[in-house]
Design brief:
Distance between the termini: 21 Å
CATH superfamily: IHF-like DNA-binding proteins
Order of helices and strands: EEHHEEEEEH
């Protein structure tokens, strides 16, 4: 884990793998495979437009974002942005309550 300027912690994928290995008593190679499998499964489901619900943690889904006009900050010209899907996460009540 590393510190941000605000003094809070930031965890990257390597830190997550180390934490999983420490909690499960498994090797870092096995923990990396498990983390990659979880992330890959969630990503694959979102690509297939499926919702992923993890009880007590939250829901992941790919939501449709409508077409809109954006502005290029360098030129100021308007640029059309096509309709697309974006990943969204909604935390479960249990997760929100534990963070408070």
């Amino acid at each position: 884990m590393s510190f941000t300027r605000e003094g809070s912690f930031r965890m990257n994928k390597r830190d997550l793998i180390d934490a999983v290995a420490a909690k499960t008593g498994s090797s870092k190679v096995d923990a990396a495979a498990a983390v990659d499998a979880v992330f890959g499964t969630i990503s694959g489901a979102l690509v297939a437009r499926e919702k992923v619900a993890i009880a007590g943690f939250g829901n992941f889904e790919a939501r449709k974002v409508g077409a809109r006009m954006a502005r290029n900050p360098q030129t100021g010209m308007q640029v059309p942005v096509a309709e697309h899907h974006a990943p969204k996460f909604k935390p479960a009540s249990a997760l929100k309550d534990s963070v408070r």
